Structures
1.
Amino acid sequence: MGVVAVVVFLLLRLTAGDPAAIIAGDNATTQQVAEIRVRLGLDRPIAQQFAIWLGNVLRGDFGESFFFKKKVADLILERLEPTLALSVCTVVLAVVVAVPLGVIAAYRRATWIDRGVMALSVLGFSVPVFVTGYALVYLFAIQLAWLPVQGYQRLHEGLGGFVTHLILPSLTLAAIYVALIARITRASMLEVLDADHVRTARAKGLAEMPVLLRHVLRNAAVPIVTVIGLGVALLIGGVVVTESVYSIPGLGRLTVDAVLARDFPTVQAVILLFSLVYVLINLVVDLTYTVLDPRIRY
Amino acid sequence: MKAVADRALAIDFGAEAAVRVGGARGLARHPSVALGAAILALVVAIGLLAPWLGTRDPGQIDPVFRNRRPGAERVVRNADGSEAKRTYWMGTDSLGRDVYSRVLYGARVSLVVGVTVALISATVGLAIGLLAGYLRWLDAIVMRVMDGLMSIPAILLAIGLVSLSRAGLRTVVLAIVIPEVPRVVRLVRSVVLSLREEPYVEAAVALGARTPVLLMRHVLPNTLAPLIVQATFVCASAILVEAILSFLGVGIPPETPTWGNIMAEGRALFRVFPHNILFPGVFLAATVLAVNMLGDGLRDMLDPRIRKRL
């Protein structure tokens, strides 16, 4: 995380644009610009700026947004709900769809089912998020008019609207994630399917379902869980795009707006936050290994 | 002693020759490689031949003939009074630019970005990975930096990086290369780590081969097969990321015809004129799919151990 902090800080301080000039606007005098620069601490040496910034960040203070003229922390809190809702829905949806697909593909290895699932998986990797997004909008929202085209409704404004606004974005975002998880599930299942203990389980007369779920899937779980964790990186990238496609006022949209406005404090905060979440999720994933496979100890 | 080294070399080259033979024979057994290569060849041809495929200037604005549906026709009067009929196969966008021409020219940007990013990140990643894998003291430092870079999601890092300087092809390529390099480094390093324990490397060390020679002649050739596969996937992901950046409006300047830009342009009027998103989207998806299929097939061909599993 330390490296991330340095990278994120340097990344956005080395820019060509002068943030003080941006805040001051087009009509500002040189003196006004200089005043703002002093107020933001932009006139100090870069190492000192970094120390101040890091100290503030650790206290949860990301500074003030140049562009939105608000505290970055407040800005992020405002935008958190849509992104969180979308991500959770997507992960649940992806796991619920992908794991069974992978299991079936492995179980029916080298049949048309297997090939179909694998083809879908390659397709899921290749079709960009926004193309899937617009295809779904065109089909379900414009042609069939079953679901709202774009936008977002907060949870407290009604559950119905909340859910219908989330269906298409989640489906869009889940596509690539499903592809990834299904693929790994299949590969990991295939490794275990030929193992001796599976043959033993069958030999003692267990039905196929318990064999598959308890003896194969359980032993194949570690790589699957790992890839669910690693896939969060894809998910975060996808969130940025999906929120733009569906005009959802979340953190992803905020990132793009902030980059376009050269609003460093916001960009720094969002990238740092996303990276923190990614690292934390993968830490949790590492910890679940001990539950899934008691042989692993830390 | 010399004989030992020669034999080690022979084994080394033998392994590579085997890969090559397997490659030639494997092509028929992997239809996905053939199909991927065919689609890719088509896209390359489109990109190269764009000026001769009945296109117009992709940047030419035509305010009178805006937002036309695909297949719209128009009679143009030339300077000498003769009339010519023009067909807009994919319609026009909200500035009256011919979408067909823009899509064809867009292939150029995507391919250039994909290939450049793949080449640069493979080269840089190979160099860093070789050194990190072989020199223990360097390993810890380099890998911490790489881990740090990898813990920032790739697209986010790229978005952050493009904001650094003026938007343009070079910035975009660089912004995509930086997140990709750690992935290549990891791969190369892991291969090198296992190779350095191989008897033939030990033999070369025992014979007094100096580190650069050792790395270049004995270690490097064996990292190439997985590297080529990885480079293909990097290429696919670079094409995607470029389109995403352009689509979000932070990539290549909007007047340049790229698939992402055409789609970004079509966003506002998507409900009425979906063709602006549909056509570049299909091209983009097909291209990335082709590169991915090529990569999958290459991996199966070059690495027989994985063939069974994936």
2.
Amino acid sequence: MTRIATMTWRCCLLIALVALGAALPIAPALAAGESSRVPRPVINAGDGKACVADSAFMRINHMDLLKHQRDDTVHRGIRTAKFSLGGCVNCHASVKTGSVNAGPDDFCRSCHVYAGVTLDCFECHNAQAKAAPGKTTVAPASAHASGTAQGGQR
Amino acid sequence: MTTPDTVEAPPMDVPADADMPMDKNTSRRAFIGITASALAGVMIAPGIRLIEIAAAKPVEQAVSPAVRWGMLIDTAKCASGCTDCVTACNTENGLSGGVKETDSQWIRKLDIKNLQTGRIASMPMMCQHCADPPCVDVCPTGASFKRADGIVLVDSHICIGCRYCVVACPYKARSFVHEPISGQKPNVPRGKGCVEGCTLCVQRIDRDEKPACAEACKAAGHEAILFGDLNDPDSEIARRGAKVATQQVRGDLRLNTGVRYEGL
């Protein structure tokens, strides 16, 4: 009786170890979203290679940085480039549309639509990147059309 | 906002400006100018420098109340029919240039006629950047505000579009944006539902340039618009203000405008 009980216990332990060993490599894969059923936003960072701060920090705090900068700029005339909205736009504008808010995959719009958060900046600010010398400007009409399209999504 | 062909000249008892503040202390700008020119030894004659030293404010430094930006407009030099200042303003700030009631006009050209003498003078009219602005007094949200350096602005982030300021302004200098806007200038965000007006080209001032209208007037050869720091006794505008009779439009309201005129 004792021998059978020990065997059973050992078998259970073995099965548990095998199961744990199989589960471990799967866990990181799920975290990366490769085999996840959950849809993920397209993050097309444009030309942006190195952001002004760590990506994880920016994801959580970009709105606060922008709001702080906005008050400094409008009321106190401080126009530092580090956290300026224009800086974001110029760096992260998509290569395809030249904007951060024109197409569904554009940097700002992609995440904001995914998260269901209203993106008000570009009601007044221009989402088109400043045209580099020799680069043709994308017609403003397209930006306007996208603005109304986005308005409809809200 | 219609532009009348003629408007009645302001009351003749408008006091000449004796209140241009004159700071006896040597200002930072003057100090830098003197020091730099002394170091470089480029003073050709008193007051004339070979190289104009730009005393640009560092970008990370807030604007200071030691400066008060203003304009002195000489109506004798302002040509009737010339609208270069208006065009330059529209180009710089991305305005449509339309003159319908619903179009934004930050600067307008007026021909004013003295009904008693028949003299007609031409002048640009825009936000007068009052020291005591009525638009700021009436704003319920604090969106209409005066920056430390005397520029009266609207913070569109806070503006709810109630248009009290439009009504309060004696100069009809504020416009309301009725239609959605696209293709704004990167430094001049504008949007539907907000009130806006002349910013004295704040985006240019912050990089030590003059307002677009003043530049355009100079380029047209009129030089009717003199822009500068009213608080700096060595600035051209303060020196001229000390020499000639200047007037504030509706000076009787005692708003202490930053934009002043000669020969109204």
3.
Amino acid sequence: MIRYIIRRLIWAIALFMTVTLIGFVLFYLIPADPAKFACGRACDSEQVAKVAHYLGTDKPVYVQYAKFLGRLLPFDFTHLHFKSPNLGRSFVNRQSVNSIVGAAAPQTASLVFGGLVIWMLIALPVGILSALRPRSLLDRISMTGVLVGISAHPVWLGLIFSYFIGYKLKWTPIANYANFFHPLYGQPGGPIQWAYHLILPWFTFAILFAAVYVRMIRANVMETMNEDYVRTARAKGAPEWRVMKAHILRNALLPVVTMLGMDVGLALGGAIFTENVYSLNGLGYQTIQSLNNYDSPTVLGILVFATTAIILMNLLVDMLYAWIDPRIRLS
Amino acid sequence: MRKRLWYTAPLSLIGAAALAAALAVTAAGSTTAKAAGQTLQMAVANSDVDYSDPALAYGVLSWQIEYETCAKLIDYSDVGGASTELSPDAAAGMPVISADGKTYTFTIKPGIKFSDGTTVTAASFKAAMNRDANPSMNSPVNAFMSDVVGWDNVVNKKASSISGVIAKGNKLTIKLTQKDGGMLDKLAMPFFCAINPAKTPVDPNGVNTLPGAGPYYIASRTVGKQLVLKTNPFYKGNRPHRASTIIITMNTNAQQTFLQVSNGTYALDPSGLDNPSAAAQLAKQYGINKSRFFVHPTPETDYIALNTTRGAFGSAAVRKAVNYAIDRPALLRVRGFLGGKRTTEILPQSLAGGVYNQHLYPIAGAQAAKAKSLAGGKCGNVNLWYATGPVGTPQQGILKYNLEQMGCNVTTKAFVGYAIYTAAGVKGADMDAMFAGWYQDYADGYDFFHILLDGRTIQASNNNNLAYFNNALVNKKIDAANALTGPARSRAWGNLDIYTMSHYAPWAPIDNRNVRDFVGPKTKGYLFNPAWGSPDLGTLYLS
């Protein structure tokens, strides 16, 4: 198991380096000078050069990348002491990228984990029941729902939900985020308001995933139900609930764990559409804003966070999978 | 099985608990402002102020905030109604200007205080200027102030204090290296807010909150999310400050913000209505400039820069032909209903000293036949550059068609965002025509002519003169206009505008953009300040 984890960690570091290097080079290739933008449009070349020196964009790309990696390391080799990893400062507003990512991540995490709960609450029962009663009325309704869920874009869904449920019916807020712990001045906050403000975003975010997972769970359960070991269990007289729990669901849900890890890791990088439509200043929204402004430190900061989240979630899933499925351990 | 599916139970419980709690709350607990005339909630769609530090803030939105929080020597006051005339703010009167026009002496009003109770003195302004020029700050203001004696020495680390700015008691003296008729307009920029140096240190990253000596001060700022203005408890002036607190939520979704202004959650989006498709309906429903929907021109010009150094548009006749060829109504229509006003001139109306609306070229539509005849088959190949987006992309299609009608062979090149300015700013770039826009930095024609059309400023890169226009006569006229002051100065810029466009046409001006504001159902007191190009947030209140 330890060798397996070490192997995975080495892969994770290689993946991290590759992703950040590609991100860095891509920004370097774009013909936009952040110093010109930061200096102000009336600046002449001399003034722009001074700002470029301040931002560090006057250095070759490999020097910039080395400095970027150096800031990320938890150890300062020049002064020989431990330090906090530093993502640098935004070119646009000179704020610490650590604080930008730190402020955006809780909003994305709230959306993703809340959405995860809802999509699994929908997908598990509907997927299993559809598989148990294929071509029944319930199955046909749920498959129609799946089709709609997959087809409806989150932006469209979000606008429809916020207009009818938030604006017309006034059942929920139209948009915005309420902080769980420290509400902004004059704004609602606390756990109840937090959840109240996230009802529409959660459902908007969950519908697509719920649709995908219903279909996946249904297919897995139907496939497992036809396995020889299920037939054998039934032939031996095992009660149906036991067959379902110990033989069908146990095997059918294994791929779901893998998918969950990948999807959650990916979504933590920013649920761009849902965040945007509900004015949630999460990582996805920040990514769009930063890309529009060519704010490479912020984009790279979010990239580092997203890459780390995906790697960690995959690592977690791999370990969980090895723990759940003895065949993985043995191999 | 029970053991291995352990995670489903707590997840289900958490989800169910969160849903139950959420559904138990009524709509009354949302972000609706508890305004009652005291607290105004506003939202800015898809944007935040760049900085709240006056030395670094350099955007329409951030300056809107600074106008509320700053005490400047002089300002475009809207006390008693909107005005484009400069008047004293923290100064007791307009400055005494020496006979050679190179020394300005201000007397500071007594009794003006910052929100922390300290007194504003001449030293507060000197401190602001020294902080602006400090090389660590890298302030955008450096582009405008090289005329001040000793300013560049501080920027270049040769001195720690600007020798040409002297504070003595309540007198502030500013010495210039040469006469600059636009200096007063420059000093009205928020870069020159009085600061309390003890609480506004030199910080390369800018400070987020600082004491303000205007009617409001920035009480808090959560970058990217919120900015809170509160009334300065020591403010005794007559500038409007009706609401006691203004809470501005940043980076909201445009469509949702529109709904939230509609239902009164927010009083206004200070950056303007970011929903052009709604403008026609709002105008029909509420009228224009009557109750909830307001439209005003901004000090901005959208134009097509015609590269005067390259084959296609090297000829003034062909450039004039382009001004006949372009379909201004169609190009403007892309910005939505009431998106702006068509123009054939360089300067927006507020800077043209009354010399405006001359209609040098067709304003009602393209005159392709005349354009073709004027061009005389000399247009040839044109590389048209544009920035992609809901405005840029359709506009390039219209312009391409217009240019082809006058006999040009057009190739388009797309850019994303401001990359187009970086690329086009390199001297020798293979651009023949490009879409551009310029919003005034300060209310003076020099800000347009010197930066955008003075050929002596052309350098190897980072050019703003995107037409690469360099005409000795025009350069001379720029210098002559810059030596003037008062109404004669404004008129000189207006006349130079007409002269340049009628003789050389380095641009094909399209429009002066409007700002469209939509306010909440109970929001009253809307007042647009034409010199700033934005509404005064201090006049707003809830009925």
